[in-house]
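User: Last request for today: this protein with X2X, please.
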Amino acid sequence: MSALTRRTLVKAGLLAAPASLCMPWVSSRAAAKIVMKYGNNLPLTHPLNIRAAEAAEKIKTATGGDLDIRIFPNNQLGGDTDMLNQVRSGAIDFFTPSALVIATLVPAAPINAVGFAFSGYDEVWAAMDGDLGGFIGDGIEKVGLHMMRTVWDNGFRQLTTSGKPVATPEDLAGIKIRVPVSQLSISLFQALGAAPTSMQFSEVYTALQTKVVDAQENPLPIIQTAKLYEVQKYGMLTNHIWDGYLFVASGKTWYRLPEAMRKIAEDALNEAGRKQRDDIAKLNASLQAELEGKGMIFSRPDPAPFREVLKKAGFYVQWREKFGDEAWTRLEKYVGKLG
Ligand code: X2X
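Assistant: Here's the final one, the structure of the complex with X2X:
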């Protein structure tokens, strides 16, 4: 219902309460309907897209159709680097980058992605809902974007290869592995002796299929929904990085929305994010068996020697310096001493 129609109906005594009580922006906007674009890099079947679609529906209903968020999944609007530029300029309104990827703009954002830092989800959510997530959100706000406070789950990243399984760091020697466009990921796999290459996710399936690279690393729900099991044979449950999706809005367009509308949107997105975390937890319990059914072979390498190699290579010292003491201390508050 448009604001005008609503006002006419109220005037005529046909609506009990003025719409402005529940939609306070209607009196301030003649043409209230706003369409916003949300781009992401994941297939439609991934819980991130399923829950985001639910949130968009909810937001549309709660705003009486005035805020319509349209979702462009699966890199339809370009790869991560493109979408990052678009959300900065306001060409798109929402984007869910991994902290690994937003690091080109906010260098301290991937503090959650230090190798082998988190030992489980209790630590992850305490940190991300607490001080560490707050720190990341502040950094993102400073570059003119807004981060919804609930961080969505990508998951613990696991290694996959096509040629041979990896049990120890020595097995990684020289393996051509695709990592996201992230200095931290490159540094991690270089320190472990592999030969990492950065690539946007939009190119990964083809790069594996054509053997431009032999290996990649991603959480199981991505290996499943992006069908990477078709082009990878071995799965190693390394849990080497915990990775989340930051639900980011373009400051240019977000802050133009009336405050009450922003609240409706942010609450719905945060609620959807919490449900999405549960979805990923459920998938984590079943996906190994499902992927084995599709022909993958799984193993669980001992993380200790990997951590040891990183320590000896100076990985933790180097990244403590890069992130700075403030970020590092916040991380260690949740995960204990590192390096
Ligand atoms: O690019 C990846 O590997 C992905 C999909 O996990 C991210 O968005 C970082």
